[in-house]
Design brief:
Layout: H1 9-20, E1 24-26, H2 32-42, E2 47-52, H3 61-71, E3 76-79, H4 82-92, E4 99-101, H5 117-123, E5 131-136, H6 145-158, E6 162-167, H7 173-183, E7 189-192, H8 198-204, E8 207-210, H9 219-227, E9 231-234, H10 239-242, E10 250-252, H11 257-269, H12 271-288, H13 291-310
Parallel strand pairs: 1-2, 2-3, 3-4, 5-6, 5-8, 6-7, 8-9, 9-10
Helix pairs in contact: 1-2, 2-3, 6-7, 6-11, 9-12
């Protein structure tokens, strides 16, 4: 559409729900959920559920008030991590039991590439005989590409056999590119805006880095782990529910570039240890964060809530 509010939305949804008579309405979008929840209740839908998919650090007071209003009309909210659930409970002043945690799932093997490394380096114009350190993230302030670039230059001063790949797009691309230029070695960096062949790019990486300031339950990290790529990540939010330090990856407590450079250096210098951690991470994703587990958890929640409503 044309953006903005559609003030006829609630009546349209109410008509739709009355016509279709769903047993459950489950919303996923902030703002939309208030109208959908109200419409569902007025159409006498038995179970109404909303979602929390990220840490709502961006929300202003009006957003929080709107969410609290929406919460009055739902049976529960599904968060994708314990961190997201705890943050939402505190921000929305709601009992923790209102939030259920169902973690995101991926298809096992979906991020494993069988493409030839040399062919891929030629395709993406990446140099040979160097280690690839990558970051997959939108260029927004919360992802902290500035920290990544500073850590990259710190590592570059220590060793010449590294190349840095940034995969993503966003409003901060020009600012980050200027920062790279000022660092004096722009040829050590490659940016790839958006690709469908993300598994191929993970396969090129010797290290996948995430240096976000806050995270709920980052899909890019799940993908990296599922691809079998060694992980270096900031110890924030839901990342700590995904990565066990020195077991499935390296967590960095500090926001200092040197701390990230040290962790990346360790991964590159200790390939056997890194491969073991990466294999454990991949096994964890395949076993615990697969699509079937996620779907079964949703199915169980739906049945539970419907059964509660049907009790006399």
């Amino acid at each position: 559409g044309h953006g903005g509010w559609d003030f006829t939305l609630m009546s349209k949804l109410r008509s739709l729900f009355r016509e279709r008579k769903p047993d459950i309405v489950h919303t996923f979008l902030f703002g939309f959920d208030l109208f959908a929840n109200l419409a569902a209740r007025r159409a006498r839908v038995p179970v109404v559920i909303s979602s929390r998919r990220q840490l709502g650090t961006w929300r202003k007071r009006r957003h929080v008030i709107m969410q609290r209003l929406a919460n009055r009309h739902v049976d529960c909210a599904v968060a994708n991590s314990q961190s997201v659930a705890a943050f939402a409970a505190k921000q929305e002043k709601k009992d923790a039991a209102f939030y259920r945690v169902i973690r995101n799932g991926v298809q096992p093997g979906a991020f494993i590439s069988h493409a030839d490394n040399r062919t891929l380096r030629l395709r993406y114009k990446l140099p040979f005989h160097v280690k690839i350190v990558g970051i997959v993230a939108n260029f927004s302030p919360v992802k902290d590409h500035e920290l990544f670039v500073d850590a990259a230059y710190e590592l570059h001063r220590r060793r010449a056999d590294v190349h840095f790949v940034m995969i993503g797009n966003g409003p901060l691309v020009p600012a980050i590119e200027r920062k790279i230029e000022r660092g004096g070695a722009p040829d050590c960096f490659t940016r790839i805006s958006a690709v469908n062949e993300i598994a191929d790019l993970y396969s090129l990486m010797d290290v996948s880095v995430m240096c976000s300031k806050v995270e709920g339950f980052p899909n890019a990290l799940i993908e990296s782990m599922g691809s079998g790529t060694p992980i270096v990540a900031a110890s924030v939010g839901g990342i700590t529910e995904l990565v066990r330090h020195e077991e499935t990856g390296l967590l960095v407590q500090s926001r200092q570039p040197r701390a990230f450079a040290d962790a990346i250096d360790r991964v590159l210098n200790q390939p056997e240890e890194s491969a073991t951690m990466a294999a454990r991470a991949q096994a964890f994703v395949d076993a615990e964060l697969n699509v079937d587990t996620m779907v079964n958890a949703y199915r169980a929640l739906y049945v539970e809530l419907l059964d509660q409503k049907r009790k006399p």
